[in-house]
Write a structure and sequence with these properties.
mainly alpha; Serine Threonine Protein Phosphatase 5, Tetratricopeptide repeat; 2 domains; 11 helices; flat
Length: 232
C-alpha cells in the first residue's frame, strides 16, 4: 500500500501578519536613532520653510506692495514715464520688478511696465515685460497676452499678433476680458484672410458672450466671413 503523503503545514494569515509586525518592530528597534534623525531633518526643513515665508517672503511682499502704490498712482494719472521710472524718491514699475521680482507685487509690476511701454510706443520692451508676467489671475493673463498681441500688431507682425490673441481668447478669463480677445483675434484673422479662423472666433462671441459689447454686430461679421470663405 502506498505511503500517505505528509500533510503540509498550513500557515494562518494571522500568523503572517504577526510575523510581519514582529519584523517591523525589530527594524524600528534596531534603527531607532536613524529614524529619529530623519524625523529631525524633516522637522528642521519644515521649520526653515515656515521661517522663510514669515521672515523673508512676507516682509518682501509688503515692501513691494508699498513701493508699487506710488507707481500705480502715476499710471492711473497717465504719467507713464514716472510710473515706469519712479519720481520724487519713489520706485517705478521697473525698479519694483527688478528688486522684488520673486514677489506677487514684483510680478505684477512686469505687467504694468509692459502696459506703460505699449502706450509709450516702445513695443519691443512692451512684449519683453508682458511676457515676464505669469500671474495666477486668469483675467490678467488674458489681458497680458492680448496686450502682447497689440504690440505685435503695431510692429506689423499680424501672424504673431494672431498667435497671442488666440492664446488670450483660449485662456481662462471672464465676460469682460475674453470677448475683447475674441474680437481682436477675429479681426486679425480677417486681415490675414483666414476666414475659417475668423468665423470660429466670431461664432464664439455670438454663442458664449451674446450680451458683450463686442457681439453687437457679430451676425454681420459672420455673414461677411461666410461669404468670403465660400468664394475662396
Amino acid at each position: 500500500m502506498a505511503k500517505k503523503k505528509k500533510q503540509q503545514d498550513v500557515i494562518s494569515p494571522v500568523d503572517n501578519v504577526d510575523q510581519t509586525l514582529s519584523r517591523a518592530e525589530q527594524y524600528v528597534e534596531g534603527n531607532w536613532n536613524k529614524i529619529l534623525y530623519v524625523i529631525g531633518i524633516a522637522g528642521a526643513v519644515v521649520a526653515a520653510y515656515v521661517g522663510y515665508l514669515k521672515y523673508v517672503v512676507e516682509p518682501a511682499e509688503k515692501e513691494a506692495q508699498v513701493a508699487m502704490y506710488e507707481a500705480q498712482q502715476y499710471f492711473e494719472q497717465d504719467s507713464l514715464t514716472q510710473a515706469l521710472n519712479g519720481a520724487g524718491g519713489n520706485l517705478g514699475f521697473l525698479d519694483v520688478a527688478d528688486e522684488f521680482g520673486s514677489t506677487d507685487a514684483g510680478n505684477l509690476a512686469n505687467y504694468y511696465a509692459g502696459l506703460c511701454y505699449l502706450q509709450l510706443g516702445d513695443f519691443t520692451n512692451a512684449i519683453a515685460y508682458l511676457d515676464k508676467y505669469s500671474g495666477s489671475d486668469g483675467v490678467f493673463n488674458v489681458l497680458a497676452k492680448k496686450a502682447i498681441g497689440d504690440a505685435f500688431h503695431e510692429l506689423n507682425q499680424p501672424e504673431d499678433a494672431l498667435d497671442y490673441y488666440t492664446k488670450a481668447a483660449n485662456a481662462e478669463g471672464n465676460e469682460f476680458s475674453t470677448p475683447i480677445a475674441l474680437e481682436k483675434a477675429a479681426q486679425t484673422a480677417e486681415m490675414l484672410q483666414n476666414w475659417d479662423k475668423a468665423l470660429g472666433f466670431y461664432n464664439r462671441l455670438k454663442n458664449e458672450f451674446p450680451d458683450a459689447r463686442q457681439s453687437k454686430d457679430v451676425d454681420k461679421f459672420i455673414a461677411y466671413c461666410e461669404a468670403k470663405a465660400a468664394n475662396s
